[in-house]
Amino acid sequence: MRRGMRIRIAYALCLAGATVNHVRAVLAHGWFPEHLPAATALYWSSLTFLDPLAAVLLFLRPRFGIALTVLIIASDVAHNLWFIAAHPLRGSFVEDVTSSAVMPSQIAFLPFVAATARLAWREVGEAGRDSF
Fold first, then answer.
1. Residues 74/35, Cβ–Cβ less than 8 Å
2. Nearest residue to 115 via CA among 1, 3, 35
3. How many whole angstroms separate alpha carbon 96 and alpha carbon 81?
4. What angle in degrees, to the nearest 10, is found between the helix axes of 102-127 and 62-86?
5. What is the 3-state secondary structure of 97-129?
6. What phi and psi values does residue 16 have, to the nearest 5 degrees?
7. 87: DSSP letter
8. Is the pLDDT of residue 110 over 90?
9. How far is CA 46 from CA 22, 52, 85, 107, in A?
10. E-strand spans in 3-130?
């Protein structure tokens, strides 16, 4: 199995885990929790569909899937860090970021995607499987 395929599998597994988290949040709080800013509620709820879509596209249309994965993780980390800074819970940004495994795992996934997306993209192109 080529490295690019292993990378896409890793992306898909991470996106599947994120999907589970978003589904659990929707089940617990609804699609548009009133305690959240409307744009944040819309963004987080949209990830319930975008994460699994990216995971599927990683195999059906790999370049679309890679591009969507990069867009999702970059925007998610940026948005979540902004949200934590704008809505502190514990008074310490670092404490808020590290209070659960969710944010550190997103932050770890971002440089992994940034470091590997080009290889996955190139291998898909070399194999001629996608014409993005």
1. no
2. 3
3. 10
4. 160
5. HHCCCHHHHHHHHHHHHHHHHHHHHHHHHHHCC
6. -65, -40
7. S
8. yes
9. 9, 11, 22, 20
10. none
pTM: 0.90
Which candidate, 21, 64, 66, places its Cα nearest to that of 45? 21
Token pair, residue 40, equals 């944040």
Question: Are the C-beta atoms of 113 and 72 separated by less than 8 Å?
Answer: no
Residue 132 has pLDDT above 70, yes or no: no
**Residue 36 DSSP class:** S
Taking CA atoms, 8 is separated from 52, 57, 64, 79, in Å, by 13, 10, 12, 24
Tell the residue number behind the tokens 């800074």, with chain if given: 85
How large is the average pLDDT for residues 26-54? 95
Tell me the C-alpha to C-alpha distance, in Å, between residue 129 and each of 9, 73, 125: 16, 24, 7
* Closest alpha carbon to 11 in 60, 66, 67: 66
Rounded Cα gap, residues 128 and 94, in angstroms: 44
pLDDT of res. 131:
47
